[in-house]
Specification:
Blueprint lengths: L11 E4 L13 E9 L2 E5 L6 E5 L3 E9 L13 H7 L4 E7 L6 E7 L14 E15 L4
Length: 144
């Protein structure tokens, strides 16, 4: 069985209902990582093979790196990710992430928190935001 690694480019990063013409933030995205945080407990006793380990349920976070900016006024109007997060803070929405646009990917229910606005003088404003995932991400099929 062959394995093909993902090369992260031409992704989909959609917040909201994908079928409802919600914004695809792929042109502002620098990275997207769905990261589990798991509490692991280990104990060792004095007897041979007396090692035990178990873990709690993973708590997931969507870590999104993005560029802060504005609509360039050319073509279809762009929704700015930082503005979207600010306008929808506190809402629960669906995040769709596909490592290749239109391909297989993952969906997760996220809680919207605002992202960083602004940046360092004399450079592109590269920012990130941590969006809490409610439950676990689920694999999704490619777009038909």
């Amino acid at each position: 069985m062959a394995f093909k690694p993902y090369f992260m480019k031409d992704i989909d990063l959609i917040i909201g209902d994908e079928a409802d013409t919600t914004p695809n933030f792929k042109c502002q995205a620098k990275s997207c990582k769905l990261t589990p945080d798991v509490s692991i407990q280990r104990v060792e006793t004095a007897c041979p093979n007396g090692q035990f380990a178990d873990m709690g349920n993973p708590v997931w976070t969507a870590e999104v790196g993005y560029l802060f900016g504005e609509d360039d006024g050319v073509g279809t109007a762009a929704t700015v990710l930082a503005d979207y997060l600010l306008a929808h803070m506190g809402e629960t929405q669906t995040l769709t992430f596909r490592p290749h646009a239109g391909g297989k990917g993952y969906q997760a229910s996220i809680k919207i928190v605002p992202g960083i606005i602004g940046g360092e003088y004399g450079s592109f404003s590269e920012q990130s935001v941590s969006l809490p995932i409610l439950g676990q991400p689920v694999p999704i099929a490619a777009v038909p």
